[in-house]
Specification:
By secondary structure, this protein is an all-alpha fold. The chain is built from four helices and no strands. The termini are far apart.
C-alpha cells in the first residue's frame, strides 16, 4: 500500500507542477501580448501625431501661398512631400479608413496647390483628428465616426 500511495502522491505532485507550469506560460503569453499592444499603440500615436504636424504645416503653407504671404512654393512642396511620406507609412501600419482619410487630405492640398480645386473652402484637420482619435481610443473595433 505504501508504494501505491507514493506513486499516487507523486502523480498528483507532478500534475500540480504541470498545471502550474501551464498557467505560468499562459500568463506570460498574455502579458507579452498586452505589452506588444501597448507598444504598437504608442508607435501608432507617434505616427498619427507626426502626420498631424505635417498636415498642419502644409495647411498653413497652402493658406500663406493663397493669401500671397508665402512665395516659397518649393518649401510648400517639401511639406507636402513629408506628408506623403508619412501617409505611406500610415498605409503600411494603420487601418484602411485611417490612411484613406490622411491621403484624402493630402490629395485636397495637392489639388488646391495645383489649381485643380477651389482654394476658398476651408481645409479643416478636424475630420482627420477625429479618425485618429477614434482609432486610438477604440482600437478600430467599433463603428467609425460618421457611419
Amino acid at each position: 500500500m505504501s508504494v501505491i500511495d507514493g506513486i499516487v502522491g507523486g502523480a498528483f505532485a507532478l500534475g500540480g507542477v504541470a498545471i502550474q507550469f501551464s498557467l505560468t506560460a499562459i500568463s506570460a503569453r498574455r502579458h507579452d501580448r498586452r505589452a506588444e499592444t501597448v507598444r504598437r499603440r504608442d508607435e501608432c500615436r507617434e505616427l498619427y501625431a507626426n502626420v498631424l504636424v505635417a498636415a498642419r504645416r502644409a495647411q498653413r503653407g497652402l493658406k500663406d501661398l493663397a493669401d500671397g504671404l508665402g512665395s516659397r512654393s518649393a518649401e510648400f512642396e517639401e511639406q507636402l512631400n513629408r506628408l506623403a511620406e508619412l501617409n505611406a507609412m500610415l498605409r503600411l501600419t494603420a487601418p484602411e479608413h485611417v490612411s484613406a482619410a490622411a491621403t484624402e487630405l493630402e490629395d485636397q492640398m495637392r489639388g488646391r496647390y495645383r489649381g485643380q480645386r477651389p482654394n476658398d473652402d476651408p481645409l479643416p484637420l478636424a475630420p482627420l483628428i477625429e479618425v485618429f482619435r477614434w482609432d486610438l481610443e477604440d482600437g478600430g473595433g467599433g463603428t467609425r465616426p460618421g457611419d
